[in-house]
Amino acid sequence: MKLENKIAVITGAGRGMGHAMAVRFAREGAQVVVAEVDETSAKQTFEEIGRRGMLALTDMSKVADINALIERTVASFGRVDILVNNAGVTKSLGFFDVTEADWDWMYSINARGLFFCMQRAAREMVKQKAGKIINIASIAGKGFRGTSNIAYAGTKGAVIAMTRIGASQLARDNINVNAICPGATRTHMYETLQQEMLTRRGLNVEEANRRLDAMIPLGRSNAPDDIANMACFLASAEADNITGQSFNVDGGLVWD
């Protein structure tokens, strides 16, 4: 098992990519801290992984919650080996539709929360001179034109930049920091965004999916497991000499 006896914190682990990563990490031997703001989905994930780890209700927009998450993890398991910064939010908005409230909401979780979670976990990883941090960015952060909105793209560009700077500043303590940039991924968030766009454009789901898949060189959008596979690799010893990178998992939608 690639992650045997590792302690892994996964934020936004209730649904979608976070859920898939929690299941995969548990299968690979990790103790998984399911960090999630939604209690119902958090409990479902925790039960599905056989209660292997810990459940931690966490609002990533609140630094106090983030600090409590890492403190509880260390109190229970003695350390943090892996952090997957997966929690994120967005909605479908045109350029002129983004409000100050939308901006603050997305940045509070996708960028601000992600940084302070990375910082707090790294404080523990420094003590053991080892750790893996995996930030979930997006191809939107590299300028993908099909992004849900410009503010969301900005948050994900920030994630990519923070991944690179974090990797350079934490390398001396043997902490790897990498990012995954998913393309279109069939999750609850994706379905919500799709429905918002379909309502505006008058398309049906089948036609929208056909158009999307036609844009992707490999001909299919991601399943959450596609992201979990990359995350598992980056969290494992197989990726010990990889840091500061932002890997697209998108079927070839963008090449940057």
Task: Write up what this structure looks like.
- The structure is a single chain.
- Helices cover 48% and strands 15% of the residues.
- It has 256 residues and is α/β, with parallel strands linked by helices.
- α3 packs parallel to α4 and α4 runs parallel beside α5.
- The radius of gyration is 17 Å and the shape is globular.
- It has a seven-stranded parallel β-sheet, sandwiched between helices.
- The mean pLDDT is 94.
- The chain has helices spanning 16-27, 39-48, 63-77, 100-128, 150-170, 188-201, 205-215, 224-235, and strands spanning 7-11, 31-36, 53-57, 82-85, 131-136, 175-182, 246-249.
- It has eight helices and seven strands, in the order βαβαβαβαβαβαααβ.
Task: Produce a short descriptive summary.
With 256 residues, this protein is of the alpha/beta class.
Q: Which assembly state applies to the chains in this document?
A: single chain
How much helicity do the residues have? 40-55%
Strand order of the largest sheet: 3-2-1-4-5-6-7
Helix and strand string, N-terminal first? EHEHEHEHEHEHHHE
Unreliable spans are none
Query: Would you report the number of β strands?
Result: 7
Q: How would the global form be characterised?
A: globular
What is Rg?
Answer: 17 Å
Measured by DSSP, the beta-strand proportion falls in: 5-15%
Largest sheet: 7 strands, parallel
What's the average pLDDT? 94
Provide a count of the helices: 8
Structural class: alpha/beta
Distance between the termini: 32 Å
Topology of this structure?
Blueprint: E1 7-11, H1 16-27, E2 31-36, H2 39-48, E3 53-57, H3 63-77, E4 82-85, H4 100-128, E5 131-136, H5 150-170, E6 175-182, H6 188-201, H7 205-215, H8 224-235, E7 246-249
Helix pairs in contact: 1-8, 3-4, 4-5
